[in-house]
Amino acid sequence: MGIRWKSGSGPACWAGLVISLGGSLLAHNVLGRAYVAAYRSHMVNPLPLGPTIALNLAIRFAFGLLGMFLYVAFRPRFGPGPGTAALAGLALAAGTYLPTLLLLAQFGILTGPQALVAAAWSVAEAVLACLAGAWCLPGAEAA
Predict the structure, then answer these.
(1) Using CA atoms, how far apart are residues 89 and 137, in angstroms rounded to an integer?
(2) Res 2: pLDDT
(3) Closest by alpha carbon to 83, among 142, 15, 12, 22?
(4) Which parts of 14-57 are beta strand (E)?
């Protein structure tokens, strides 16, 4: 028995798509231009826009893959379903999003209410991504 990459790549792509769309909405529409400018001002050598977008998308789709890995790992212990997917989303947010948000707060890129909005948005985004991925996972009849 091994990893079935074909059956897991579709749900991981759905989760990555939710994470990518959510991150773009957060950065550009909710936090606004001031956040993007502050983020770019802290880069030593800012990358051109194309490679920056490609790298950001690759990281977010990797987060989607990690979220689906966590869901599949949690299923034997907690059973299939939306509760397990939400738990995987919380674990994903705690391990990936929240440490990054703490760094952004330390650098002064996210401050005050912006940091709280970004944290709440990120947790909700991770949970929704895992729910979306679990919903289309083969054999997830209860999800």
Answers:
(1) 15
(2) 56
(3) 142
(4) none
